[in-house]
Amino acid sequence: MDPFEDTLRRLREAFHTGRTRSAEFRAAQLRGLGRFLQENKQLLHDALAQDLHKATQLDSAFIRKEPFGLVLIIAPWNYPLNLTLVPLVGALAAGNCVVLKPSEISKSIEKVLAEVLPRYLDESCFAVVLGGPQETGQLLEHRFDYIFFTGSPRVGKIVMTAAAKHLTPVTLELGGKNPCYVDDDCDPQTVANRVAWFRYFNAGQTCVAPDYVLCSPEMQERLLPALQSTITRFYGDDPQSSPNLGRIINQKQFQRLRALLGCGHVAIGGQSDESDRYIAPTVLVDVQETEPVMQEEIFGPILPIVNVRSVDEAIEFINRREKPLALYAFSNSSQVVKRLLTQTSSGGFCGNDGFMHMTLASLPFGGVGASGMGQYHGKFSFDTFSHHRACLLRRPGMEKLNDLRYPPHSPRRLRVLLVAMEARGCSCTLL
Amino acid sequence: MEREVQRVRQAFLSGRSRSLRFRLQQLEALRRMVQEREKDILAAIAADLCKSEFNAYSQEVITVLGEIDFMLENLPEWVTAKPVKKNLLTMLDEAYIQPQPLGVVLIIGAWNYPFVLTIQPLIGAIAAGNAVIIKPSELSENTAKIVAKLLPQYLDQDLYIVINGGVEETTELLKQRFDHVFYTGNTAVGKIVMEAAAKHLTPVTLELGGKSPCYVDKDCDLDIVCRRITWGKYMNCGQTCIAPDYILCEASLQSQIVWKIKETVKEFYGENIKESPDYERIINLRHFKRILSLLEGQKIAFGGETDEATRYIAPTVLTDVDPKTKVMQEEIGPILPIVPVKNVDEAIDFINEREKPLALYVFSHNHKLIKRMIDETSSGGVTGNDVIMHFMLNSLPFGGVGSSGMGAYHGKHSFDTFSHQRPCLLKSLKREGANKLRYPPNSQSKVDWGKFFLLKRFNKEKFGLLLLTFLGIVAAVLVKAGYY
Predict the structure, then answer these.
(1) Which residues of chain B have a CB within 8 Å of the CB of A388?
(2) Closest in B53, B85, B382 to A392, CB measured
(3) Where is the signal peptide (chain A) (predicted)?
């Protein structure tokens, strides 16, 4: 009895039905073959090794994350240690050499970073440079392989323009006016606690602080006493004597903020003390969009409330303006929160709280539009400071397969190529 | 110009481009366009570069179709929010990354592969939900015209528009504000594009060029190596940003390499190369003259024939090339300089003294040597023991580094490039008691508790987690009861 007869008959009969002739059928078969190769790489490799001690492998494709080279980190003054060291950690982890330019405005930290930090790092790969706007301008004329800048959008443009001359990629962590929508369906005291804490932390000098509140006049009525109660609880009856309230970094910023106190009406706070660079936790109402307090990033312990009549109006208000670094929405209704989320754009978003999203290193941190470009924190830092280099290592064998791609080309070959390309999965390897 | 851009922005603001269904529809329409109008597209490319149907199809159209199919298959998964690891403080919250469109994207195409280098980025921008303004290269005018004619017939006419024009129009266009600018072209213009983008703080992807070195080791199969190099170098008449630009090898290999490439050229294009339908022409007279000037004073091992009337330049190989000469300063063209080096060390030094290239090629049986070459140099991408091919695998990001560019695309990398990956944290208004820990007035014990909760991660084993939760509740209760 012939062991093959049945099998061969079966195949011949199938062929006569014409099933193998259509392009679709052939493509499906090739796709199956592709999947076989894809899903059984190790098996095939081991088998080949066993049979022929062949070092034959299929191609290997991978992405190498390589350091860029010389990285410049320009840090701001508001969280001078954190916003200098967290990027530094990323740059070092990715294997770069780093030039650090701390802010000249936060003088004490600048001194420590310049004098003490280098002792802990390899000095051949790390340097701290000091200076103001003029020196920074000079620094930016040099060529770097990456520039990481945290600061204002205005200076961000200067940094990117300088980087363009050398085609240096950049990450810009900028700022904006972070809207804070407060729905009618909320407990005002809870909202007041959360908003106040994030607003007045570090005397409001935080790029992700809620910058202004959007709510209905009715909500405003309930929010104001809640905010007053919160502020008293946090900082006492005389906030100026509270150890938990920060001060404005310098005279220039102080003067700028004091001028903003004249916008709208002061509902809470409004006091200031030049000798102490102190500004009381303040809430402003009846502010117009055109007033300075609604035109520039406040960066201080002042919270304007702008009235809107509905969620739609709030969304429209937000979308008319530059994309902020953060966006906040408070509501018991998850639908309202999700609507704010999907119909706006911002660097990051937090529902029902302040900048807690920053504390999760699994979330990338960065802006969009005028609030910046690029992201960092955790693994995102490593990826930011690495060049992702695509590598394909082909084997010298299998040259016969390559013949398909070499000229001279014929119409017949085009048809074969088309069928091969239909099985997209591993056609690249075939080619 | 401003009005055009405004119109597109308005279309984006309508929200139409955002839904998954819409994006898939547009991509399907694009696919239909490529399939139904294949003849017209191939004819346009042929008119621009004297490219055969096979070449135009296999070099450009196939990649576009493959990319569209890949997007159609994977987009539904990519657009979904990706949950992230949480810490103790956010344990009960929703935390995820939501990809969102950037807005209005400007894509400036190149002339050498005029169809794919315009349409492949477009595919990514559409997939990510953006509105797009496409500015094809004016040098490949037939393709520019056909793209302008066909796109409005298949795609949404308000969200995706084509603007044609030269330097003047492009400069005007760059003054407008976009949410991302994607440029393919040369380094000099790349700088201009980035500078214009800086004025609006617009992020950019720059796919530029450079001289992609090709190191040929003693230990390799020279026959195969030379076939692969010949294929990659003279494809599209050398007008490929990732072509092996020049060869680095030991002097003893030069004559063999020259001979084998010469034989391969004959095999590929026949005795009379001019008659071969598979050999393209130089895009225009300016580039023709430029490339011609690179031959001055060089030792032509073979090739060097030119015909200005048809903008034909024969596949050419130069030997013993002096690195300081012009041909080693510029790129793009069917001229292959061979620069002899003593060994792989010298090759690596040579490469590192120059700008980082878009691609790097190394041919060797010695895996260690290949690894060394990759480790000790930098480039956009690498293909070992072949050329060009890393471009074909869309799981690999395609882009440059240093003066060869910034950013990357292809496949999911395109989707990521044209999206804003927005971190979202959704908490509830309940459990306000627990927050008392963070509110002033502060105390040292609060700081200690804070450190404990913040620095611990959510991924401990179940028991540890329960313990932490229990402690958390205890802490909250104690705080509420006024012990802190």
Answers:
(1) 397, 408
(2) B382
(3) none
